[in-house]
Amino acid sequence: MLRRKPTRLELKLDDIEEFESIRKDLETRKKQKEDVDIVGGSDGEGAIGLSSDPKSREQMINDRIGYKPQPKPNSRSSQFGNFEF
Questions:
Q1: Dist CA 9 CA 6 (whole Å)
Q2: What is the pLDDT of residue 73?
Q3: 81/4 Cα distance (integer angstroms)
Q4: CA–CA gap between residue 69 and residue 50 (Å, rounded)
Q5: Which of 65, 47, 66 is nearest to 56 (CA)?
Q6: Each residue of 20-71: pLDDT tens digit?
Q7: Neighbours of 37 (CB within 10 A)
Q8: 3-state DSSP helix/strand/coil % of the chain, to nearest 5
Q9: DSSP one-letter code for 66
Q10: What is the CB neighbour count within 10 angstroms for residue 57?
Q11: Which residues lie below 8 Å from residue 46, measured CB to CB, with a gap of 6+?
């Protein structure tokens, strides 16, 4: 592998202005999304999303993606079958 000196990056005024405009755009989108969540929270999902309980958050995610966890069997015979020696 060839080594070379690090490339020098220069921060220009145009770059700063572009960054600020993108950041403001993202902030307005985030505020609009929060407003929609607050207004649309009457169906119950918004209230669950605001709670700090990790189980309800996990349950909400599982419901959203359609995952239904099955309990794991604890007995060894169910893991390995019925082997007879």
A1: 9
A2: 62
A3: 60
A4: 23
A5: 47
A6: 999 999 999 998 888 877 766 544 544 444 556 777 888 888 888 988 877 7
A7: 13
A8: 65, 0, 35
A9: T
A10: 14
A11: 37, 38, 40
